[in-house]
């Protein structure tokens, strides 16, 4: 009986039928038992050199250098990148952002998402394989492992051997170096939120805030676990990008593929033998493409969501093709249309749409940053009374002006008021605000008795930086007086 053929009640044998076959025999084993989580089998990757691995080095080092060095650089006497949460200031390379500017952060995240979609539509998961922090840090940990424990075969042999002084020493050194890299990673991350020089001084003098200790420990363990132990499981099970990346693919997307027409039938042969002479394809079934894969897949089985596009299998296969004197690119970056013998297009509607969206959003964000106010002015009216009438008939309205200097330099400012009636401004008309400071300035507006001001009307406060004519900010309010 075909197990895939449905059985209706009339044709199915009854429970009392002596010829009845148990239901379990109709169900294949792989259907009757389902593992929701497969136990991890350790992947022993083989070291390989090649064009794409040199390219990965060039893309990975800028990320590492930028991450570890930026907090230590100084810009106009302050840390170049510092997200000062208690002060609600975000200093980025000479620019100071405030909580009111967080809309620009949303813009930046949207731009980053569309940029990722653009790159994915054009060249698949090159971000995952070349610049993703998980990939870069995992590569560092794997490099340390290879330097201490040896080649792939040596690591397999070491793990299979019983514990000894030599094995313990190698494991201890490896994990110590992993923890050292993880600690510096966590320490640097906290240094983006706490002045890193003060953090370093406090760490070595044991005068460090408990919360700083907690977050350094947290990110140290997270880095150690993700890059040292979980590795490919982060990409396969935890990262959502692997699950929806195919929605951005099209037949012209560059993906890593195996040329089945050229490679099949697989089989080993002598080095100088041509494929046609032995009746085989160009694939010699050396398994090198599987041994170098950080996620442990066989790219010859077709495109799989576990593939991160790192091109290790491309370099491995090309090295074998060179030795066999065969043409390269049996495994290569190619498109589905190219493999099918169809013309492939670089520019297509979806890709042009992504590029246009990124360019427009980058332009708007640049304009928003360049046009943002470097002064922030807020006005609070006195809540005790709408107005105060003096004995001589003068009418006073009291306000508190909040002036924020959003630049990284100290400036002097001048206040003025625009109103349909003549009002006298009493208080500090000129004042100085330090970099990143918010000052409260009490101001009184007076309508003298001879002006015969009656009723309520709109007014506008203005604050102007004295060393420039262009930096002016305003805020509207109301002036109240007796109606009669």
Automatic annotation (TrEMBL):
PROSITE patterns: 4FE4S_FER_1, 4FE4S_FER_2. The chain crosses the membrane at residues 55-75, 104-124, 177-197, 209-230, 351-370. Residues 1-16 have a biased composition (Polar residues). GO terms for molecular function: 4 iron, 4 sulfur cluster binding; metal ion binding. Keywords: 4Fe-4S, Electron transport, Iron, Iron-sulfur, Membrane, Metal-binding, Transmembrane, Transmembrane helix, Transport. InterPro entries: 4Fe4S_Fe-S-bd, 4Fe4S_Fe_S_CS, Cyt_c_oxidase_cbb3_FixG, Electron_Trans/Redox, FixG_C, Helical_ferredxn, Ig-like_fold. Pfam families: Fer4_18, Fer4_5, FixG_C. The keyword 4Fe-4S applies. Residues 274-302 form the 4Fe-4S ferredoxin-type domain. Residues 1-20 are annotated as: Disordered. This is Cytochrome c oxidase accessory protein CcoG. It comes from Zhongshania marina.
């Amino acid at each position: 009986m075909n197990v895939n053929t449905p059985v209706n009640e009339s044709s199915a044998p009854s429970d009392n039928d002596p010829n009845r076959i148990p239901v379990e025999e109709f169900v294949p084993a792989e259907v009757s038992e389902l593992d929701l989580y497969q136990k991890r089998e350790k992947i022993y990757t083989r070291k390989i050199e090649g064009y794409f691995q040199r390219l990965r080095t060039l893309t990975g080092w800028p990320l590492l250098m930028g991450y570890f060095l930026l907090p230590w650089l100084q810009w106009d006497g302050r840390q170049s990148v510092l997200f000062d949460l208690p002060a609600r200031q975000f200093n980025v390379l000479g620019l100071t952002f405030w909580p009111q500017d967080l809309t620009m952060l949303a813009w930046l995240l949207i731009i980053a998402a569309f940029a990722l979609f653009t790159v994915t539509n054009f060249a698949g998961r090159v971000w995952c394989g070349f610049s993703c922090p998980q990939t870069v840090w995992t590569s560092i940990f794997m490099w340390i492992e290879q330097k201490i424990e040896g080649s792939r075969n040596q690591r397999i042999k070491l793990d299979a051997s019983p514990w000894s002084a030599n094995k313990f020493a190698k494991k201890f050194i490896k994990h110590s170096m992993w923890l050292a890299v993880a600690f510096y990673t966590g320490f640097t991350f906290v240094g983006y939120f706490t002045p890193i020089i003060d953090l370093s001084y406090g760490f070595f003098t044991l005068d460090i805030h408990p919360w700083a200790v907690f977050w350094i420990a947290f990110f140290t363990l997270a880095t150690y676990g993700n890059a040292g132990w979980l590795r490919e499981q982060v990409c396969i099970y935890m990262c959502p990008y692997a699950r929806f990346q195919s929605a951005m693919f099209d037949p012209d997307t560059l993906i890593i593929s195996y040329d089945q027409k050229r490679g099949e039938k697989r089989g080993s042969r002598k080095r100088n033998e041509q494929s046609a002479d032995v009746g085989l394809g160009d694939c010699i079934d050396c398994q090198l493409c599987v041994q170098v894969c950080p996620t442990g897949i066989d790219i010859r089985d077709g495109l799989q969501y576990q593939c991160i596009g790192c091109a290790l299998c491309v370099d491995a296969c090309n090295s074998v093709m060179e030795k066999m004197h065969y043409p390269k690119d049996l495994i290569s970056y190619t498109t589905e249309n190219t493999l099918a013998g169809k013309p492939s297009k670089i520019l297509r509607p979806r890709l042009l749409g992504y590029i246009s969206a990124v360019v427009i959003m980058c332009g708007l964000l640049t304009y928003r940053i360049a046009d943002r106010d470097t002064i922030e002015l807020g006005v609070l009216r006195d809540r005790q009374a709408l107005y105060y009438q003096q004995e001589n008939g003068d009418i006073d309205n009291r306000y508190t002006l909040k002036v924020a200097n959003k630049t990284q330099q100290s400036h002097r400012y001048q206040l003025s008021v625009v109103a349909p009636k003549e009002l006298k401004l009493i208080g500090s008309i000129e004042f100085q605000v330090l970099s990143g400071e918010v000052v409260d300035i009490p101001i009184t507006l007076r309508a003298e008795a001879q002006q015969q001001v009656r009723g309520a009307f709109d007014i506008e406060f203005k604050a102007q930086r004295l060393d420039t004519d262009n930096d002016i900010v305003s805020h509207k309010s109301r002036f109240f007086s007796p109606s009669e």
